[in-house]
């Protein structure tokens, strides 16, 4: 611990230099080294009950000062008497601490298959003295976001340490994207994500064929972009082939621009993609009103209810996603596919996320799915990615 403090002090000294500071934006923190006093109390109680002589019992009682509670805000009257006393640890006290630390071992429950001798337990989630059990030791399946997130991320990091790339499924990535960063922080019970938390899902997005899935929303949640770049370099080195290899240079360049809060260079492929998609989305939104008139009386007729909402979308009064339910209510399948495709091509707002993911997953809306994937990529990059000059 002393050596760690010296190293950290040296890092802090180096960080005073303007040249070195960018490389030490995130410095390590010393772990809390603390022995649970309950462990010492239990050991003292055992020593006291097993003592055979009065002297041994006195020695055990004398060591109680090691676990005296902290002074409360309103101190009792008798506490002042301790100011007239001096307590110094003896060799026995120090030996007790060392021996307890040696023998203390972490205990963790594991859920086993049925059969054999079981151990009756009770669950006390708010009891600080209860034995811990990790979620992946308690359940065989995870239905909540936190459980799935920890399982996928833990597996991916463990496999990468073994030299293999195993990424979470795309469906889970899109579930997180629909939630958005603010709600996702609540679901994961975190204030920020670490680089180890984020890189597996980012690689999932970059591995998707033809059109990358959203991942900049995860980047915006990471506490140390330098560490994220390092983890992604490792992942690219292990699984970088074909489509994934093509994503490496522009993605890392964009991450560096975001880390330095710089505008992304115009020659980066991300810039051209975002500019083109943004212009097309605006043009397609304006084209909704003429399309209503052009298709009136045909199989693609939007009908009075959907038409009213679509016009408000075309005029910019409503987000594109707010017209989705009205379009999905159309009875004619051809009309439904046509208008969902036009909505997907017009989407450029984070409020459209749920609509786009639903289109992407609906087998009846295949004609609109490519446009939905492009819109997801656009919205993610504009809302959470590096700065891009759109015009």
Description:
It contains 18 helices and no strands. It is mainly α. The protein has three domains: 37-72 and 87-103, no CATH class; 145-262; 270-384, no CATH class.
TL;DR?
By secondary structure, the chain is mainly alpha-helical. It contains 18 helices and no strands.
Find the count of extended strands (DSSP E, 2+ residues). 0
Please give the count of helices: 18
What is the radius of gyration? 30 Å
pLDDT averaged over residues = 80
Largest sheet composition: none
Query: Which regions have little confidence, pLDDT < 50, spanning 5+ residues?
Result: 110-115, 135-141
- Anisotropy-based shape: elongated
Number of domains: 3
Fraction in helix: 55-70%
Topology, pairings included?
Blueprint: H1 2-14, H2 37-50, H3 54-62, H4 91-103, H5 135-138, H6 145-161, H7 170-188, H8 195-207, H9 216-219, H10 225-239, H11 243-259, H12 269-286, H13 288-294, H14 303-314, H15 324-328, H16 333-346, H17 353-361, H18 366-384
């Amino acid at each position: 611990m002393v050596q760690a403090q010296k190293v950290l002090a040296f890092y802090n000294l180096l960080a005073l230099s303007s040249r070195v500071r960018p490389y030490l934006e995130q410095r390590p923190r010393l772990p809390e080294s603390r022995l649970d006093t309950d462990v010492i109390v239990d050991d003292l109680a055992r020593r006291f009950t097993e003592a055979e002589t009065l002297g041994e019992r006195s020695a055990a009682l004398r060591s109680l000062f090691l676990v005296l509670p902290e002074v409360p805000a309103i101190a009792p009257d008798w506490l002042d008497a301790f100011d007239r006393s001096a307590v110094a640890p003896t060799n026995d006290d120090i030996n007790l601490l060392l021996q307890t630390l040696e023998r203390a071992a972490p205990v963790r429950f594991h859920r086993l298959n049925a059969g054999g001798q079981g151990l009756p337990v009770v669950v006390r989630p708010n009891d600080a003295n209860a034995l811990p059990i990790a979620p992946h030791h308690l359940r065989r399946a995870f239905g909540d976001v936190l459980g799935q997130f920890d399982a996928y991320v833990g597996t991916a990091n463990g496999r990468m340490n073994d030299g293999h790339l195993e990424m979470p499924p795309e469906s889970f990535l899109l579930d997180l994207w629909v939630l958005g960063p603010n709600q996702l922080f609540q679901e994961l019970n975190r204030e920020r994500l670490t680089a180890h938390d984020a890189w597996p899902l980012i690689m999932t997005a970059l591995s998707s064929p033809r059109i990358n899935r959203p991942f900049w929303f995860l980047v915006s949640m990471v506490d140390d972009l330098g560490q994220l770049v390092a983890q992604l370099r490792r992942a690219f080195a292990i699984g970088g082939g074909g489509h994934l290899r093509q994503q490496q240079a522009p993605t890392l360049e964009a991450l560096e621009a975001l880390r330095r809060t710089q505008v992304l260079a115009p020659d980066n492929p991300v810039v051209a993609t975002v500019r083109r998609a943004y212009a097309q989305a605006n043009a397609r939104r304006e084209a909704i009103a003429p399309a209503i008139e052009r298709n009136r009386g045909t199989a693609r007729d939007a009908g009075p209810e959907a038409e009213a909402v679509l016009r408000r979308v075309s005029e910019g009064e409503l987000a594109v996603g707010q017209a989705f339910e009205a379009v999905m209510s159309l009875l004619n399948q051809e009309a439904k596919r046509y208008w969902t495709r036009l909505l997907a091509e017009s989407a450029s707002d984070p409020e459209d996320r749920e609509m786009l993911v639903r289109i992407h997953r609906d087998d009846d809306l295949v004609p609109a799915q490519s446009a939905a994937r492009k819109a997801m990529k656009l919205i993610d990059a504009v809302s959470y990615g590096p700065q891009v000059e759109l015009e």
